[in-house]
Design a protein that fits this description.
CATH architecture of chain A: Orthogonal Bundle
Structural class of chain B: alpha/beta
CATH class of the largest domain in chain B: Alpha Beta
CATH architecture of the largest domain in chain B: 3-Layer(aba) Sandwich
Helix content of chain B: 25-40%
Oligomer: heterodimer
Number of helices of chain B: 13
Largest interface: A-B, 34 and 32 residues
Number of helices of chain A: 12
Number of strands of chain B: 9
Radius of gyration of chain A: 24 Å
CATH superfamily of the largest domain in chain B: Periplasmic binding protein-like II
Number of domains of chain A: 1
Number of strands of chain A: 0
CATH superfamily of chain A: MetI-like
Largest sheet of chain A: none
CATH topology of chain A: MetI-like fold
CATH topology of the largest domain in chain B: D-Maltodextrin-Binding Protein, domain 2
Shape of chain A: globular
Distance between the termini of chain B: 45 Å
Order of helices and strands of chain A: HHHHHHHHHHHH
CATH class of chain A: Mainly Alpha
Shape of chain B: globular
Strand content of chain B: 15-25%
Low-confidence stretches of chain B: 1-9
């Protein structure tokens, strides 16, 4: 009698497994193999097998590139959290009739490609752009300020693109928060700060961690934000990989660098899985 | 497997796969070509020599029929056997080309390539902020008054080409000591660099983001039409030259059709239309002859022959490209 669902299950799982094997595992193994080869002038890679590519990554310049990328992503994540948490809190406490509208407003930017929005930000921040015109008209400045092509502009772009990824998981965990717990805390004499610190924050921590990961990981890879708003003056990990594959034609070294990046990202995910298990509420 | 993506066509229908730079050919040209010859053109674009090369190399010199590499990339691709020698008997209009643009070091005797468009890299300056008369040579860009105000192309070869020129070194040097010296010189320029960009550089001048910078003459020409304050300064000494060239891939499936299109593009009126629409100079002498005199006689677009002869093109750097990239990364990482 359960024959049919069994077949369905086998087919679905088989398809999924086949997909992952051929489009995730196999290419990753190819990259691992590539990273152990040497650069070859005739092709893209050749013998001998070596660990040199990984050794070269220890050069201070590459450590610096990794460190700078992580620092930029970290600042963007922190700002997203500081902006996103109060917003998500307000969203979860808004009248139920208003919430779908507010949520839609968070999601609407996704309807436009992030690259297009980054170019739009460039228009706003330009020397003859909207922001400078406004400040000039208000008499606050008498000469256009050069806002673009700075690290600040780069971070503004990252926060703009990634903020919804912070708000949505935070909203999901804040919405589940039982208001009776807050009432109980108040009845027991806890002030607003203690209620937040000891009730709200611990219960929404999984949302905070999920939001931070969803912002931090893509922030490392959005190299075009640095190119368009940062003026390509700083080298981030994404640019480093692109340069190795296209300019230097050093595919083995590019492969090694991308594997190190993947390794670091996996470490973050493992940390998240561990933290989520630790802080998960025990009651069902 | 390599040709799996080719759409099967009805027997007898001729076709051609053309891989060109983006915004580098008015669509009407291909429509007219198809109408006249019946050859269907499948058109695809790229935005850097390196991206084109990576695809062609992976497809082992096939996948497309016709590509448009710059000088150094023609050099590299012909040395690696990715290009097919041209059959001059199929190119009756080849004689239209100005001999100044032929038989150059990156492809002696033009066995593999046909010049398409070319230009010079010079200094662009916004006259509203900087007196153009106070800026004549590349070395002036190092002056402290340009702090955080310069535009450089996001193009390693161009930037090193300029630095080698300033130091009086061979512009295509593969000597590690020369590359190191150019890097040190460029590191001194970094405080003046506002940004690296090759993406519509004229906008950055028009919107007042930069005061001066490296710019291609065609781009400066377009920008000046919108904002007359933008001037192009040609530093003394030989110009930094670049040229893009039509070339047929070694394993092209439609070489005859590719020759037919190259020859069509060499017709004076077609070359003129392309040059006027895209904004860069044509190497086609017969097309130059029918251009409006104010363009034809503008020394910033068509410099006198003696200036042109002192100019230098980029050639393939071979293995040294790895060292260049390392220094380029070092420069940007601020080490």
């Amino acid at each position: 009698m359960s024959q049919r669902p069994e077949i369905l299950k086998t087919v679905t799982v088989g398809l999924l497994a086949g997909w992952l094997l051929s489009f995730v595992l196999a290419p990753t193994l190819l990259v691992v193999g590539l990273s152990l080869l040497s650069r070859s002038p005739a092709g893209f890679a050749g013998g001998p097998v070596t660990l040199d590519n990984y050794r070269r990554l220890a050069d201070p310049i590459y450590l610096h590139v990794f460190a700078e990328s992580f620092a930029t992503a970290f600042i963007a994540t922190l700002l997203c959290l500081l902006l996103g948490y109060p917003f998500a809190y307000g969203l979860a406490r808004a009248r139920p009739g208003l919430r779908p509208l507010l949520l839609t407003l968070v999601i609407v930017p996704f309807w436009t490609s992030s690259l297009v929005r980054i170019y739009a930000i460039r228009g706003l921040l330009a020397a003859k752009g909207a922001l400078n015109n406004l400040l000039l008209a208000a008499g606050l400045i008498d000469q256009p300020v050069r806002l673009l092509y700075t690290q600040t502009a780069e971070i503004v772009g990252l926060v703009h693109v990634l903020l919804p990824f912070m708000i949505l998981p935070l909203y999901a965990s804040l919405e589940k928060l039982d208001p009776r717990l807050l009432e109980a805390a108040r009845d027991l004499g806890a002030g607003p700060f203690r209620r937040f610190r000891h009730v709200v924050l611990p219960l929404t921590l999984p949302g905070v961690v999920a939001g931070c990961l969803l912002v931090f990981l893509p922030a490392l890879g959005l190299f075009y934000v640095g190119d368009v708003l940062g003026g390509s003056r700083h080298l981030l990990v994404g640019n480093l990989l692109k340069d190795q594959f296209l300019e230097a034609q050093d595919w083995p070294f590019g492969a090694a660098a991308s594997l190190v990046l993947i390794g670091l990202l996996l470490a973050f995910l493992a940390l998240y899985a561990y933290a989520a298990k630790r802080i998960a509420p025990d009651d069902g | 497997m390599l040709v799996a993506f080719l759409v099967p066509v009805a027997a007898g229908q001729r076709e051609l796969h053309f891989f060109n730079w983006s915004d580098y050919l008015p669509p009407a040209v291909l429509e007219n070509f198809t109408r006249e010859t019946g050859i269907q053109v499948h058109y695809a674009t790229y935005d850097s020599n390196e991206a084109m090369y990576a695809k062609v190399k992976l497809l082992e010199g096939g996948g497309y029929d016709l590509v448009v590499p710059s000088t150094y990339m023609v050099d590299r691709m012909r040395k690696q056997g990715l290009l097919r020698p041209l059959d001059r008997s199929l190119l009756p209009h080849f004689g239209n080309l100005d001999p100044h643009h032929l038989d150059l070091p990156f492809d002696p005797e033009n066995r593999y390539s046909v010049p398409y468009l070319w230009g010079m890299t010079g200094i662009g300056v916004n006259a509203e902020r900087i007196d153009p008369a106070s800026l004549h040579d590349w070395a002036d860009l190092w002056q402290p008054r340009f702090r955080r105000a310069l535009l450089l192309p996001n193009d390693m070869r161009e930037v090193f080409h300029m630095a080698m020129r300033v130091l009086g070194l061979p512009v295509n040097s593969t000597d590690p000591a020369h590359i190191d010296a150019a890097y040190r010189k460029l590191r001194e320029l970094m405080p003046n660099v506002r940004l690296f960009s090759s993406d519509a550089p004229q906008i950055l001048f028009i919107t007042g983001e930069v005061d001066a910078g490296m710019i291609w003459n065609g781009v400066a020409y377009l920008a000046a039409r919108e904002t007359p304050a933008i001037r192009f300064v040609q530093p003394p000494g030989g110009p930094l030259l670049w040229m893009d060239n039509l070339a047929i891939l070694r394993n092209a499936t439609n070489p005859d059709e590719a020759h037919a299109l190259i020859d069509y593009l060499l017709r004076p009126e077609v070359a003129r239309l392309i040059s006027e629409t895209v904004g860069y100079a044509t190497p086609n002498a017969a097309a130059i002859a029918i251009l409006p005199p104010e363009i034809r006689n503008d020394p910033l677009i068509y410099p006198p022959a003696d200036v042109l002869e002192r100019g230098e093109y980029q050639v393939d750097l071979g293995e040294a490209i790895g060292l260049y990239t390392e220094y380029w990364e070092r420069l940007k990482a601020g080490q």
